[in-house]
Design a protein that fits this description.
This protein has 519 residues and is an alpha/beta fold. The chain contains 15 helices and 12 strands. The N and C termini lie far apart (76 Å).
Length: 519
């Protein structure tokens, strides 16, 4: 005989604000965040954009502050948990709002966007089906419509939000691959890429590495990517692309030409109109990776840099770069919404055909994702709050800061300007007296600033004398803080000069640098 099961213990009644999406939960959300922030005010904020110390020490201190390793048996409560995390993020995290933070295409997010993102998270809607989040589907359609209009696309355009520019580029090349296959009478989704003869994708030699990753992921292979030379302004050369296209044999399938509108290091914009004409002539898809440069369309003075964008087949937009959104806020725009047919799916438990016919449909057929968070909410809040004019002022401010940095670097004997401010980046070098040590000193001075936590600048390699020159180690300022000033730029460059001089005098050990930073 099976004994009767013991009755489970009676659980205490949950507090009314337990679930964020409820009316009580939304109130508790605002109160909890306020208490956490207030409690974190006593935290020791670093002097600079990063905490002092070697990476291993900073990471170890952060881990220790969270508590003993492993899953806690009992929780510490909402207030204590949020206070602990807020303190860790303030003391050991990054402060992108600090004027000495100038390393990556990683802006300080706008307060309105972060607040809207919290509201979106509280609802926990998904964009795949109507009944997973009707309002947020409408919000995304509104945002996409605003951005396609800004790009100059007509009413037949469409778009979708993705988890980042790399995924937007991947999706664009998937659409391009399937379109090229269809022109050859190949159903690549059914038969695979082996049925597609010798696919080729063209991009600038300075294109983002995600183009190569996408080709590998899509089965085209990284060897399908053909790098096109750039000119002295770091832009893809149309004459070189034309020659490469002419040299393709009939056995090759031109999948796409990927133009870059805002290279990561130089902010250079490929000649979009000329590249579009070449792509059309040879039956290739024209994708524009405007992850960085699209935001210039907010600015009256800089929007001309995107001339020709309106003729692209697809465009990658990252508003977590120029757009001041918390990551991720990437969008893939397409000139013809029919391109999304390659991703269309009807699944009985999500969007059966009769539900779709009745209007109960979501956005499942525009992306590789199923569950997808409503990142459009924070973008919508920003567009509503500031409009194109307000965001354009932010863009213009950051461009002016970059132009000021360019002028100061060009006037400083110990610095060499490698590439000026096309958008908001400036590439330069510290000129150590001994030319043989310059690569080492430039690398070390950046690490010195990181270790001391006083400044956050970027690093890359470039050819100062042109394409035939050997690449050298360079420094980079990426200026995306619209509250920074020209005086802040002067102070930042002074820190670079001081760090370079210190590295020229000697190469300190980590322990020495730690002691010096603590002092």
């Amino acid at each position: 005989m099976i004994p009767a099961a013991e009755a489970p213990p009676v659980a205490p009644s949950p507090p009314p604000g337990l679930l964020a999406g409820s009316a009580e939960g939304l109130v508790e959300l605002s109160v909890a965040v306020t208490r956490a922030v207030a409690g974190a005010r006593s935290a020791r904020r670093p002097r600079g954009p990063l905490p002092q110390g070697a990476p291993a020490d900073v990471l170890a201190a952060t881990t220790a502050a969270l508590g003993p390793a492993g899953m806690p048996e009992r929780g510490v409560g909402t207030d204590a948990a949020l206070h602990r995390l807020a303190t860790v993020l303030v003391e050991q995290g990054i402060d992108l709002s600090h004027p000495m933070a100038a390393a990556h295409l990683q802006p300080p997010p706008l307060t309105v966007a972060v607040a809207a993102d919290a509201l979106a998270s509280a609802g926990n809607a998904s964009l795949d089906t109507y009944d997973s989040g009707p309002a947020t589907i409408a919000v995304e359609r509104w945002v996409v419509d605003a951005l396609t209009s800004l790009a100059g696309f007509d009413d037949g355009a469409d778009g979708v939000l993705t988890p980042g520019g790399s995924l937007s580029n991947l999706t664009a090349l998937l659409l391009a691959r399937d379109a090229a296959a269809a022109r050859r009478g190949v159903d690549v989704r059914r038969d695979g890429v082996a049925a597609l003869p010798k696919p080729v994708v063209f991009c600038s030699e300075l294109a983002h590495f995600s183009v190569h990753r996408a080709c590998a992921t899509l089965g085209l292979g990284e060897s399908a990517v053909r790098a096109v030379p750039v000119d002295e302004r770091h832009r893809m050369r149309p004459d070189a692309l034309a020659a490469m296209l002419r040299d393709l044999g009939e056995e090759h399938t031109p999948i796409a030409v990927v133009a870059t509108a805002g290279t990561t290091d130089f902010g250079s914009v490929d000649p979009l109109a000329e590249l579009t004409a070449l792509a059309r002539e040879h039956g290739a898809w024209l994708h524009v990776d405007a992850a960085y440069g699209f935001g210039t369309l907010f600015s009256d003075s800089l929007a001309g840099r995107m001339d020709g964008l309106t003729h692209a087949d697809s465009v990658t937009v990252d508003l977590h770069k120029i757009g001041w959104q918390p990551a991720a806020a990437s969008v893939l725009l397409v000139r013809d919404r029919a391109a999304f047919a390659a991703l269309d799916r009807s699944v009985d438990y999500l969007n059966p055909a009769d539900d779709r016919a009745a209007g109960y449909d979501g956005l499942l057929g525009r992306t590789l994702q199923t569950t997808r968070r409503p990142d459009a909410v924070k973008i919508a809040a920003t567009l509503l709050a500031y409009g194109r004019h307000g965001l354009g002022q932010f863009v213009d401010t950051c461009h002016r800061l970059a132009r000021h940095a360019e002028a100061r670097i060009a006037a400083e004997p110990r610095l060499e300007l490698v590439a000026g401010a096309e958008l908001t980046t400036v590439v330069f070098r510290y000129l150590a007296e001994d030319p043989a040590t310059r690569d080492r000193v430039n690398g070390e001075l950046r690490r010195r600033l990181l270790h001391r936590g006083t400044a956050l600048i970027g690093r890359t390699s470039a050819r100062p004398a042109g394409p035939a020159d050997e690449p050298v180690t360079c420094l980079k300022l990426t200026l995306l803080n619209p509250t920074a000033t020209e005086a802040d730029i002067d102070d930042l460059l002074a820190l670079v000069l001081d760090a370079g001089a210190a590295c020229e005098r000697h190469s300190p050990t980590v322990a020495e640098a730690h002691e010096e930073g603590a002092a």
